[in-house]
Amino acid sequence: MKVLSINNRHIPELKKILVRVNNWIGDAVMNTPALGAIRESYPDAEIVVVANPLVSPLFLSHPYCDRVIIYDKKNVDRGISGFVRFVVRLRRERFDAAILFQKAIEAALMTFLAGIRVRIGYLTDHRGFLLSHGVELTEDIKKQHHTLHFISLLRSCEITGGDGRQLLNVTDNEKAWAQRTLKEASWVVINPGAAYGSAKRWLPHRFAQVADELSNRFGFLIMLIGGPGEIEIGQEIEETCHAKLTNFVGKTTVREMMALISACRLMVTNDSGPMHVAAALGVPIVAIFGSTDHTTTFPAGVAHKIVRKDFPCAPCLLRQCPIDHRCMIAIEVEDVLSSVDQLINDENVDFGRQD
Known about the structure:
Blueprint: E1 4-6, E2 9-11, E3 16-20, H1 25-30, H2 32-41, E4 46-51, E5 67-70, H3 79-93, E6 97-100, H4 105-113, E7 118-122, E8 133-135, H5 139-142, H6 146-155, H7 172-182, E9 187-191, H8 204-218, E10 221-224, H9 231-240, E11 245-247, H10 254-262, E12 266-270, H11 273-280, E13 285-288, H12 294-297, E14 304-307, H13 326-329, H14 333-344
Parallel strand pairs: 3-4, 3-6, 4-5, 6-7, 7-8, 9-10, 9-12, 10-11, 12-13, 13-14
Antiparallel strand pairs: 1-2
């Protein structure tokens, strides 16, 4: 087992490691390459992911962690009393180290109060005094793809390894369920939402036009996916689209969504959590970017095409556009379809079923 080295001081072997992952689905998926490096460096340690209820299903049946502890601050762990109870729970676990991918002060305070001796994280949110090993989040690191943020954190502690790939696991039973649900057909999944905010969302009626063209030109069957907050977007597309489509928006669990995506040949999507899920499952992607920075959050590790338009105000990184949504309005249906054509005609891209 690798010996952890911090500031040239060697830490005895770690037998039990807490990893606090990020709170958004896309960010949590981008944690997985670093999680893989921890697994490779400490193959005999128990690796326990702490996650909120939204992202915790991503890490069920995952090869990089042994179990998941859910931190539900909106319900059972709500308020000061809930936080204290959760800290007591962590203290009883007797972790050797905590690695904090989440950059908030809460994660550092939680592990400090839990008595975890080694606490590794970025020096963000004024939390440096709570960390045993704080790492500066430099401008150079900020410019890297987000998957590299967490790998850079580990390298500062001489934790190396892993293959750098995002990884999610769909079980055989989940794959069988998706195949029974979808039958044997060629499916494209369209993800028209983005939980972060409306600035990341392309126009629903244009998604409907793309769906029609994918059906007419290529004979694809179309499915829509999305969360409970995106039901109206799914309904608008369903009502506008002429092609037959299956609307799963707001109707699946996270694990079911993963299984459905894994059975598809292609995803057309906004920059979003499901986009990163598809990337981790090896599904080719056409990704539409507006307010967000495609250089730091593109779908890593998978064949993809980015569709975006250059504007002085983009990327603004805002949740809602304060002007006229120009970066998204400027993207035409043919821009997206052209990217689909390029992927389909690329002989290096595998469009077989993701089994």
